[in-house]
Design brief:
This is Trafficking protein particle complex subunit 11 domain-containing protein. The protein has 22 helices and 30 strands. The chain is an alpha+beta fold. Among the domains are: 6-61 and 71-145 and 156-212, 3-Layer(aba) Sandwich (Rossmann fold), CATH 3.40.50; 570-666, Immunoglobulin-like, CATH 2.60.40; 724-830, Sandwich (Immunoglobulin-like), CATH 2.60.40.10; 834-911, no CATH class.
Length: 915
């Protein structure tokens, strides 16, 4: 609420201006204020000098107000200040009343009072401001009776006579002139009546002002919003809550209609600013006056979903995120104030049927957390636009340019320089507030929420270049998420810790954190390029270590379940010992080749002292370990009697400055290499920009309305309508033949297929060769919903048997979702038709008449239908030899061979060309 003017944040109180001598004001005004504390509305009685009457705003001339020029703005910026601090509802004119004054002196004082009243009437003409003349009598009337007859007080008129004369000359009624004689006691009836008269006149003034606000017969939305806001504020002066909320609602609806109907950037900016003020008033009175949380939350939902809370037309994304953050920040501050005043009571019986959607909305931390989320987005948008705030830059260089005053609220010249706003500091303040209320209000079993907020706080400290503070929070978050095995977050945290260590020039921490980031457990969550960069920076930093006295991290590669060390399994080792040699197999999990200086083995015999055997790069060809490639070393050892076991393996590194760094891996070691998991599927959901739901993981309401149901909990699962692939070809695949398989891609019934690609994977590539598609990622044509598309796969089989092939299809939906399909198909490869003759070795011969006699035709495993016999340069025809000797040309045209059937054919060959 710091960005709002004071007049908007405070409850308006009727302004009463007191003019007169300071000594009289000091005697009267404190008593009136103390009496007014027990009544509503409370008055704002300001002590002013006589000269202040000249700064009262003058009422505009009626001749000019009858046809005002077209307004260029919705709301004037000084309207609230004018009615809160400048324009009074009642004017108190204080004067000392001396009953001992001579007649001539009293006549002079009457003239002065009359002139003063006339000046005030002239200044406040047309505003219905009540002027009350308060005469303070310091001496009692009894003092005049004790005077001697020879004094000048003989024949002095009484106080009543002088008051009556003063009312006539000043043209004031009896209720406008007050005489105070005893101002010591606050229980004096005259003082109580004076306070009541002041309060009632102030109420009548604002009541009259609400009626005097001009409302056109067919007002525009601009005039309707202005009229409703003015009337609502006048009702707020009177503490008339029902009428006030009604008119604020009318003003807000008019502003929403303007936001939808107008496309002007200037109008949109003004609507946005005025709607924010009206929204604040609605939420303020819902929480602090009416104490209705549901009403306030519903208004917040409506405001954040309205057009005034969307990205502005001028594409000022930084100001938009600042606007969104300010709405939730102000709501959280109002929630804190409501709790400070005694909390929010349960809803009445009438509203029990429509309760608040979730008790989560009662948590104050939620609003500060969402405000911090939008503050973070503002910082990121400013960084993307090159408008980041530099905390190390002197304030003079980042001071915003002078802002010219604007007549209307929300004008463009009220924008601020983005580079002068400490974005990260604002987010840190909001997250600190959120953590404070989580600590106070949330039980221990929701500790995950605290850790998530702590991680966001660490990232903001990092953005604010507070590396030491950020490093402490990141270390705590890393420990927690390693224990819970949230390796996706751990990889992100370790990357930030490496950045902190680099900026703090902590080489030892940089080396240790880089090794943790290269852990095989984090490999599925870290890109290959980033792993290569981390590995290169690791050894560059180690190569620059010049002092052997620097304490390098004691890097242990042991897999300790209690600590869940990330550096475990960076290098897997399998060792078995023989009588004369120690055979060790190593497999590196690092992304790049690593050349060690020494390899040391510490082994012991039963009951003996440990023995160390080392391999040096001078004696061994090389001690290079390539990523994911096992390598075996044989170390000759002296034969031992009894059992020999390897206790530890030491990997030694040395840089160009002869500084050593040792990695240790403790046993026991397996005799065979362990199976390495090449690929891991990440189970960590995306939680970037989400508000944790009180320890329920990454889910949160994020101010999205949910319909809660009683009884069984319904789970709504949105299943995506995916495309399907069918195999059209059903004929078998011939061995050593080129076969074309027809597939059909069926598009979904409710979505389109964009940028589809297909690829074919063969289980046994040695027996099958895919000729088409040539590339493993072939682009096919896009499809509309409920449409089909055919594509072909050409293949050649080298051996009979079943062939398992997988068709991979990937495409994008209309909403941008990436869909992948893997459909397995099984086809059978069979041998082609075999021909055998009655001749020797089954070789068909052609006789002199041009006939080739084929004794039998044996079909393959699957049925075969002879459709056509075609040979080059010949014209063949076949005849089935029936058992009765009859030849039927129609039957032989389409003979059918079943599986395993055999038939006799006569093939008549007639040469086309005579040679």
């Amino acid at each position: 609420m710091e960005a709002y003017p004071v007049e908007l944040k405070e409850v308006p109180r009727p302004l009463v201006a007191a003019l007169g001598p300071k000594d009289l004001q000091a005697r009267v005004l404190p008593v009136l204020r103390s009496i007014n504390e027990e009544f509503v509305p409370q008055l704002q009685i300001k002590s002013l000098s006589f000269d202040h009457r000249f700064v009262f705003p003058i009422k505009k001339d009626k001749s000019t107000s009858l046809s005002p020029p077209p307004s260029k703005g919705i709301w004037k910026t000084d309207w609230l200040k004018k009615h809160h601090e400048v324009l009074p509802s009642v004017v108190l004119l204080l004067y000392a009343f001396e009953p001992r004054l001579a007649t001539r002196d009293w006549a002079i004082q009457e003239t002065v009072i009359r002139d003063e009243v006339e000046d005030l009437r002239r200044m406040l003409s047309g505003r219905d401001v009540k002027i009350l003349l308060v005469l303070v009598q310091l001496l009692d009337d009894a003092a005049t009776t004790t005077a001697s007859p020879s004094s000048s007080m003989v024949n002095v008129p009484s106080s009543d006579d002088r008051l009556q004369s003063l009312r006539k000359r000043a043209e004031l009624d009896a209720k406008s002139v007050w005489l105070l004689k005893d101002i010591v006691s606050r229980t004096h009836p005259t003082l109580i009546k004076l306070e009541a008269a002041i309060r009632m006149n102030a109420i009548e003034y604002y009541k009259a002002q609400a009626k005097r606000v001009k409302k056109a017969k067919n007002p525009s939305k601009l005039m309707a919003a202005r009229h409703s806001f003015k009337v609502a504020h006048y009702y707020e002066f009177r503490q008339h809550m029902s009428k006030m909320v009604l008119h604020y609602e009318a003003a807000y609806k008019s502003l929403l209609h303007m936001a939808v109907s107008s496309s002007s950037v200037e109008v949109q900016t003004q609507v946005r600013a005025v709607a924010e003020f009206v929204h604040f008033k609605l939420v303020y009175h819902a929480l602090l006056t009416n104490r209705q949380l549901k009403t306030a939350v519903d208004q917040l939902h409506r405001h954040m979903a309205s057009p005034v809370s969307q990205i502005p037309p001028n594409d000022d994304i930084c100001m938009h995120w600042g606007y969104m953050s300010r709405q939730y920040h102000v709501f959280g501050q109002l929630m804190v104030e409501a709790q400070r005043r005694g909390g929010l009571p349960p809803p009445p019986t009438a509203a029990a049927a429509n309760p608040i959607d979730s008790d989560l909305y009662k948590e104050v931390y939620l609003y500060f957390s969402v405000a911090a989320k939008y503050a973070t987005r503002r910082r990121q948008a400013a960084a993307k636009a090159g408008l980041s705030y530099d905390p190390n830059q002197p304030p003079a260089a980042t001071s915003p340019p002078p802002i010219s005053p604007s007549m209307y609220l929300g004008m463009a010249n009220q924008s601020v320089a983005e580079t002068s706003i400490p974005h990260a500091a604002l987010a840190i303040h909001l997250l600190t507030q959120a953590l404070h209320h989580v600590t106070d209000d949330v039980a221990h079993h929701r500790h995950r929420l605290k850790h998530r907020l702590g991680l966001r706080l660490a990232l903001e400290h990092l953005a604010n270049r507070e590396y030491s503070v950020a490093r402490q929070h990141l270390q705590l978050a890393s420990t927690v998420y390693i224990q819970e095995r949230w390796y996706g977050l751990v990889s992100e945290i370790l990357g930030h810790l490496v950045t902190c260590a680099r900026h703090e020039r902590d080489t030892a921490a940089f080396l240790e954190l880089s090794m943790q980031l290269l852990s095989p457990k984090l490999e599925p969550y870290v890109s290959a390029r980033f792993r290569d960069t981390v590995h290169a920076n690791l050894f560059v930093a180690f190569d620059h270590v010049t002092s052997s006295q620097m304490t390098l991290p004691d890097l242990s590669l042991d897999d300790d379940d209690g600590r869940r060390r990330l550096t475990a399994s960076l290098i897997s080792v399998a060792i078995h010992c023989t009588n004369s040699a120690l055979v060790a197999t190593f497999e590196s999990g690092l992304p790049v080749d690593v050349a060690f200086y020494t390899l040391g083995f510490v082994f012991t015999q039963d009951g003996g002292a440990p023995c160390v055997v080392e391999l040096h790069h001078e004696t061994t060809a090389d001690l290079l370990l390539s990523p994911h490639i096992p390598r075996t070393f044989q170390v000759p050892v002296t034969p031992f009697s009894g059992g020999v076991a390897c206790q530890q393996v030491r990997f030694g590194l040395r840089n160009r400055h002869h500084v050593s760094w040792t990695w240790t891996l403790a046993g026991p070691f397996a005799a065979q290499p362990r199976h390495r998991l090449v690929r891991r599927n990440s189970l960590l959901p995306e939680i970037n920009g989400r508000v944790p739901g009180m320890g329920q993981g990454a889910g949160s309401p994020s101010f999205q309305r949910q319909n809660l149901r009683h009884g069984t909990d319904p789970y709504l699962v949105h299943e995506v309508d995916k495309a399907t692939v069918d195999l059209v070809s059903t004929s078998p695949v011939l061995v050593h033949g080129v076969t074309c398989l027809e597939f059909v891609l069926h598009a979904p019934s409710t979505d389109h297929v964009h940028h589809p690609r297909c690829a074919v994977n063969i289980d046994d590539q040695s027996s099958v060769t895919v000729l088409s598609p040539v590339s493993q990622d072939q682009l096919i044509s896009p499809q509309l919903a409920q449409s089909d598309q055919q594509f072909q796969v050409v293949m050649t089989c080298h051996s009979p048997g079943p062939v398992l092939l997988s068709v991979h299809v990937a495409y994008e939906t209309t909403r941008g979702e990436y869909v992948q399909l893997d459909i397995p198909f099984t086809v059978h490869a069979v041998l082609p038709v075999t021909l055998s003759t009655a001749k020797t070795d089954g070789v068909a011969t052609v006789n002199g008449s041009g006939f080739m006699l084929v004794a039998h035709v044996k079909a393959a495993v699957a049925p075969l239908r002879i459709h056509k016999l075609a040979l080059k340069h010949v014209t063949p025809y076949a005849t089935i030899v029936q058992s009765g000797g009859n030849n039927d040309d129609e039957e032989c045209a389409t003979p059918f061979l079943g599986a395993g059937d055999a038939h006799s054919l006569v093939l008549h060959v007639t040469p086309r060309e005579v040679t």
